[in-house]
Specification:
225 residues; Phosphorylase Kinase, domain 1; 2 domains; 6-stranded mixed beta sheet; 8 helices
């Protein structure tokens, strides 16, 4: 729809009807919008790409708010439909991580797994399999309760899967932290990260850029980038 300036809009917040939190609201010419995503000032192109994808490709009524210190994307809502028809968000209302973030994390995991198999052989591959299974069990990752489920996570292309595991961001951060530790342990140094990050090139560019932006802002950013 529109690219707006701060002086064009009214910003406020309302209590969430089901959660103990405030919902940011933008009002413009009698229309109401709910916050979808926030980008840093240096992420102008990412913000515009995300906004265009929602408006042009997904048919969402959205505005891009341009401020000196940030960019933000807002989706049109009716306040009485806040819970019935929520605006699209990188995270679901259940607190799950964005499916694209889960896909990216799985691509990194599978790339490390395949590199160990190709470069280090069966013995280290089996050791890694046991170690990552322990990570899943200790972290109580959903849909990792069986050997078959873990094998699927390690081998089935997440970009082709109809459904990715419903993991939260804390699951992803725990996985990426342990994956880095195990990769460094098996390969002897951290140079493997540059190689496995190339696996993200298979993702749609918007999803990849969103994940990389999240990763950079996370505590794991210094390990992987």
């Amino acid at each position: 729809m529109f690219i707006l300036k701060r002086q064009d809009v009214q910003l406020s917040s309302i209590p969430h009807p089901k959660k103990d939190q405030q919902v940011p609201i933008l009002t413009y010419q009698g229309q109401t919008f709910r916050l979808i995503s926030v980008f840093q000032a240096a992420q102008e192109e990412e913000a515009k790409s995300f906004w265009r994808d929602l408006t042009d490709n997904r048919g969402k009524a959205c505005v891009l708010l341009e401020e000196p210190e940030r960019f933000s994307v807002w989706g049109k809502i009716h306040l009485d439909q806040l819970t019935a028809e929520p605006a699209p968000e990188p995270q679901s209302q259940k607190g799950e991580a964005s499916p694209a973030f889960v896909q990216a994390s799985l691509l990194l995991l599978q790339s490390v797994y395949m590199d160990i198999e190709d470069m280090l052989g069966t013995r280290q591959l089996n050791a890694f399999h046991k170690e990552i299974t322990t990570v899943f069990q200790q972290g109580r990752f959903p849909q990792t309760e069986s050997t078959d489920a873990i094998n699927q996570i390690l081998k089935v292309d997440p970009l082709e899967s109809l459904q990715v595991p419903p993991w939260r961001e804390q699951h992803l951060m725990a996985l990426l932290q342990e994956l880095h530790r195990l990769g460094k342990q098996h390969f002897g140094n951290a140079s493997f990260t540059r190689r496995v990050m190339e696996s993200l090139q298979d993702m749609p560019s918007h999803d990849r850029n969103q994940f990389l932006g999240w990763l950079k802002r996370s505590p794991m950013g210094s390990l992987w980038q």
